[in-house]
Request: fold
Amino acid sequence: MSIDIAVIDYGMGNLRSVSKAIEHVAPGCSVVVTGDPVQVASARRVVFPGQGAMPDCMREMEARGLRQALLDAARDKPFLGICIGLQMLFEHSEEGDTPGLGLLPGRVRRFPAERMKTSGGEKLKVPHMGWNEVEQVPHALWAGIPDRSRFYFVHSYYPEPADAGLVAGWSAYPFRFACAAARANVFAVQFHPEKSHVAGLRLLANFVAWQPAA
Amino acid sequence: MGLAKRIIPCLDVTAGRVVKGVNFVELKDAGDPVEIARRYDEQGADELTFLDITASSDDRDLILHIIEAVASQVFIPLTVGGGVRAVEDVRRLLNAGADKVSINTSAVQNPQLVADASGRYGSQCIVVAVDAKRVPGDGPLRWEVYTHGGRRATGLDALEWGRKMQALGAGEILLTSMDRDGTRIGFDLELTSAFSSALDIPVIASGGVGNLDHLADGVTIGHADAVLAASIFHYGEFTVRQAKEHMARRGIEVRL
Reply:
């Protein structure tokens, strides 16, 4: 059986939400949750989610022999990273001083305690948890989603791409940070589209239909 | 503009039905959980919290089926609490489609559970529910932690407990005032504010909401990151959207 969409399972957290949401927007597609590099290689599209701590995620991903399969998929298939799945694409994370896959240049940083205040002086909590606005940088995956729509976030670390040209979306908490990154066939988001109601489902539907330029 | 304050309808579930009690007792039937979850989702709820208040273990597995059904139709964060005793319970709830799991009595009995569960699945999915009751007296305000659905005093100071839970890896605190729950006279704003300023993780205010100003007060005076209510939504008094519009008029940033 051919696989339309592989949701990468490396044993970290709940992938049910991701697969359910994709099945919901792509009823005719075969969606497989898998940690098997062979299945990942045979899939047309790859979704790379993640929850938990970056060092554990990297370790579990390596332990399942998925590094090469991910690097291969990210070379030419429509590829969607979500949350830790976005963070793992970068070169390095401050969380546990962990090297990432290095597919995208840049680092992942922790929200610094000394900056977590509103302009009015009110304390901001970490994790950044809840619905925040996303300022879009034009991309096919934003089609039909009004700019500054809110998406659901829950994270304590954020990406800092080395190249501003990689940024596909911005959010602010309280300072502006990149919450989406894109290059060729790769798109990755810090928020959770599978938990972001209408806007999130539309983004997933756009991913399922996405034909990146070769 | 930035992060929106969240409105979270809470569904107390027992024997497969949503119920609502007054001061944790006298349960009244409020409907089918899947139907109610869908209605709140359509009204713009930011999250949903399900508390399994089943007293016997006979009905315990029912909540898993309910969460599975809701998670396949409702694409917003779902928190589930009640009867979580082991990391294995956390795993089963997450696999059923919960995004966060709320731990209450078991955190008091075994604080290591909070550390183990957040270590395994991440702080982002571990909520510690604190049921707090004012300690009478003339000294500085103090609250005590209660467990077993509010029936058992623990002797623990609620604020100290909250700090300890944060240190052990809780990602969020669901803070219920036992004095206010079911009274409809508003949150215990002093309790909410004390928690919010003492902790670095988000605090959800709960217990006592009777009108829309109470929700807004929870944010503006209590400094809550999210507000939780049950009865004002269950009986159709207000929709979630009306609550959000009211909060927006009070100058609070919400997702509309």
About this structure: Residues 33-43 of chain B form the longest helix (11 residues). Chain B touches chain A through 38 residues (CB under 8 Å).
